[in-house]
Amino acid sequence: MKDIHSLEIPTLILIVKKKKKVKILYINADEDHVSLQFNNEKGDLKVETNGYKSNTIEPRLACIFEGIEKESETSKRKKLVGKHYIAGVYKKSNEIWEEVLEYIDSVYDETYIEKIYIMGDGAAWIKAGAIGLGTKCHFVLEKFHLNQAIMMAIRHLGDSTSDAREAIYDGISFEDKDNIKKVFKIATEWEDSDSRREQIRRTKVYIENHWEAIIRPNSDEYARMGCSAEGQVSHLLSSRLSSRPLGWSMVGVDKMARLRAYVANDGKVCDLFKYKQEKKQRIIQEEIGKEVNKEIKRKQKTYTDVWNHQTVAGSTRLVDGMYCFTKKLRGIN
160, CA 20 to 30 Å: which among 51, 121, 138, 235? Predict the structure, then answer.
């Protein structure tokens, strides 16, 4: 734990002689939900009004890639082309997008890029990235979370659930909001529970708030790229941070998330420890150098005071025979 906490984990950026020229870039974004033992020290977790401790932290993950291709000519599996991960705990939404921008600026010729698509579940920090990356960037709502929200709203319809789901997706395909509203109205009428009715209302608002991001694939073929953010978070973050009942500190979550991304980007952990040792040696050498310089300056001042001909006797005009004799020896008239 101490080794992980003390590591400095840089964002691993490729050193390219010539920047890549691609027209389309994709970014998958999502977050994990990790349990904390404490924030900075034990006992500092806040207790909510319901009596539960507020101990969840959300490390964020962004995956930048250029497209997909088959793993081999005969394989049915596909892989992301030119993928690069950025992960960590960020207090402000713009912090992760600053790292994303730094990577894109270092690796790609931005004048050649026509469009950037950010795909995710519609969280505020993800949509902030679509704004922060400029007019070329467009947000596309991930189908997994859209379908999850729809099914939670209509699952109580029993045998009619599949028909209701199909009607909603028809409304999305034909960009017919009224048809979708009719389905949710029927779903509300067939539900007696207030909490379930509230779930239906939230799903309807969720679709309305992300309408442009939902229908964008209808007219933009590049926006039809599937989103694998959920799987990436599960593989890269959850498998180490939250899939088992573990407790973390805020520093530990941030360092481990960054370390997992660093390794996924083909970084070597041994290089980090080597860099740590080299930095430690540099700091020691710098401290020694400072102390040596202080000692040299101190001795220089002592020698200057000793050999300065403006002695106390001379300055006070208290001149005796011995003083004149020593001046003659030193060649001073």
Answer: 121
Closest CA to 256 of 274, 275, 242, 266: 242
Q: With bands split at pLDDT 50, 70 and 90, how would you rate the model's confidence at 218?
A: very high
Neighbours of 38 (CB within 10 A): 15
* Alpha carbon distances (Å) from 239 to 153, 158, 231, 232: 29, 34, 11, 10
Name the 3-class secondary structure at 42. Answer: coil
Cβ 177 vs Cβ 211: under 8 Å: yes
Q: Crossing angle of helices 194-209/211-219, nearest 10°?
A: 50
Length of the chain in terms of residues written:
333
Residue 314 has pLDDT above 90, yes or no: no
Cα–Cα distance, 80 to 65 (Å, whole number): 6
DSSP for 108-172 reads B-TTT--EEEEEES--HHHHHHHHHT-TTEEEEE-HHHHHHHHHHHHGGGGGGHHHHHHHHHHHH
Please say if the pLDDT value at position 202 is more than 80: yes
Beta bridge partners of residue 310, listed in sequence order: none
C-alpha torsion sign, points 204, 208, 213, 216:
positive
pTM for this prediction: 0.80
Rounded Cα gap, residues 239 and 231, in angstroms: 11
Indicate the residue type of 157.
Answer: L
Query: What pLDDT is recorded for position 252?
Result: 92
- Beta 78-81 vs 84-88: how paired, if at all? unpaired
